[in-house]
Every structure is written in structure tokens, then in C-alpha cells.
Amino acid sequence: MEVRLAKSRGFCFGVEDAVEIAERALADHGAGNVIALGPVIHNPQVVSRLEERGLSQTGVLERIEAGKSVLIRSHGARPETYEEARGLGLNIVDATCVLVKHAQDAVRRLHEEGYHVVMIGDPNHPEVRGVIGYAPVVTVIDEGSDLEDALPYRERLGIVAQTTHSPEHVAQMIAKILVRPYKEVKIINTLCLEVTRRQESALALCDEVEVMFVLGGLKSANTREMVRLCREKGRETHHLETHEQLTADMTAGKRVAGVTAGASTPEWVIAEFVEKLRAIPVGPSDPEAPSGALLRTD
Ligand code: SF4
Fold this sequence. Notes:
- With 298 residues, this protein is an alpha/beta fold.
- The chain has 3 domains: 2-11 and 193-278, 4-hydroxy-3-methylbut-2-enyl diphosphate reductase, catalytic domain (Cobalt-precorrin-4 Transmethylase, domain 1), CATH 3.40.1010; 13-96, Rossmann fold (3-Layer(aba) Sandwich); 99-187, Cobalt-precorrin-4 Transmethylase, domain 1 (3-Layer(aba) Sandwich), CATH 3.40.1010.20.
- Helices cover 37% and strands 18% of the residues.
- The protein contains 10 helices and 12 strands.
- The protein has helices spanning 13-29, 44-52, 79-87, 98-112, 126-131, 147-150, 167-178, 193-206, 221-232, 267-278, and strands spanning 2-5, 34-37, 56-58, 69-72, 91-94, 116-120, 138-141, 156-161, 184-187, 211-215, 237-240, 256-261.
- Strands 1-12-10-11 form a 4-stranded parallel β-sheet, with helices on both faces. The protein has a 4-stranded parallel β-sheet with strand order 3-2-4-5, with helices on both faces. It has a 4-stranded parallel β-sheet with strand order 7-6-8-9, with helices on both faces.
- α7 (167-178) links the parallel β8 and β9.
- α8 packs parallel to α9 (221-232).
- The protein is flat.
- Iron/sulfur cluster (SF4) is lined by residues 12-15, 74, 97, 99-100, 163-164, 192, 194-195, 222, 263.
């Protein structure tokens, strides 16, 4: 099977930094002495490699013994978490992505300037749960929110968004807010360009292939968003974590497949998947398939 790769795909600098920080902490403090507060990144394959090297994980700070190191993941944490960790006598290793820190600072600044802060994002996502801790009150909205009920009337509204959302989605949400009677609305752009580039590359690739594969953790928000965008574009799209989940029906009758990966998917997961996909014999062609596409060589 012919396989074309998205130009921008896989590990972003924030995830690379988080993995490096975890590895360095294990080298400095020793296996068993570094405990991540939740999965370091949303990729089970990378997390299990780190676990093999001695990283453990908990959801509860109190379970970590004094003197050990707590690793704050790339999604960041609320300010109380840092205070609590210090109070428990833990050494803090902070792997929060700089762009998540930018969103945290934006929320704090908007509150200090007197805006009622609104975050466009998934209220259950760890990044959002952390970021909203940087102001006493933040209203979180997503596409399912009834803005009439969710948004209180305040003269001044300050808006940020979850880093992994698409610009289109955020623009649509902001448009819905702007038709309401706020006197002043301040927007701080907290979107991650790494994610936006991956989304644009995936959408461009959709035009060249018959089927798309988006590799990444099933809980990874940026991977899920890419899957949603590719499907919205009308291309058959499969969200898989590894080559082991690839089944014959996904490629039946297809000649050209596109592959991309979320920001927490390492290159070795992509390489294994591409190797398996390329080995699949080409079936009869689909008359609806896009034609005349250029072959990428990256
Ligand atoms: S996707 Fe963007 S915000 Fe998230 S860790 Fe990577 S660089 Fe940071």
C-alpha cells in the first residue's frame, strides 16, 4: 500500500521536554524515587517505557513519601498542588509545557485586571482543570454549553482557550459570545501553534488519500481533535494507538493511505505503523478515490 505522511506530525517540543525532564529526574534521583502526578503525557506506550525505567504514577499527592520527587506533567497543575507538595516535603520536578504556563499566566492576569475569565475547553481535561486554578472563578464552556445559562453577565469578559483546540472551533465559540451584550471582551490567544500545524497538515493530506490514520493516545485531546477535523472533512479516518490495532477491513479496497500522529506520539510508533501499512498488498481501486495527488517524500 502507498503511504503518505503528514508534513507536521508526532512529538511536539512540549512533550519532548516533558519526557526529557522525566528521564533526567530518574537519572538524578534514581528509579522508584520519581512519582508522576497522573500520566506524564497522554501516550500509554511512552508512559510504559518510562515506567520500565522506574517512574511510577499516582493520582493522590498524599500517597508520595516525604523526600521523594513529584513530577508535574506537561498539562500542568493548580497552584494549590504545588503548595500541597511543598507542605508534604516533596521535591517538585515541573514538566509543565511553557504554552500551558502561558495559559495559566493569562488566566491570572485577566483576573487581576478585573475581567470575568472564560475558558473555552473540555472541563474534564487535566490541562483545563489546572489552568482554571489560576483565578478564583473561571467559567468553562465547550460546544455543548448553553451560553445563556453558563455565562454570567459581567461588563468585562476575558477569554482563553484550551491549547489543543482548533482556531476554527475557538472562533465559532467567540462569535457566539460576541453577540451577547458585553461592553468589553479581551481575548488572549492561548492556542498551540504546534497543534495548529499538525491539524493543517492532516487536513491537507486528507485530499491526497483514500483513508487516514491518526496515531495517538485515545485520551489525547489534540489527537482526537485531528480525528474530528479529518472526519468532518469527509475522509474515512481511524484513530489508533499502535500498529497492533490495524485490521484488514480498514484498508480493504484502498491504495493510498495517509498517516499522521498527535503531539504525544513518538516517531518509533509512527515508523512501526508505516512499515506494517506499506507491507499490505494493494487491493482493487476505489472509483471515488482522489486522483492526481502529489507524492510526498518526507
Ligand atoms: S501540544 Fe502544544 S501545548 Fe501541548 S505540550 Fe505540546 S507544545 Fe505544549
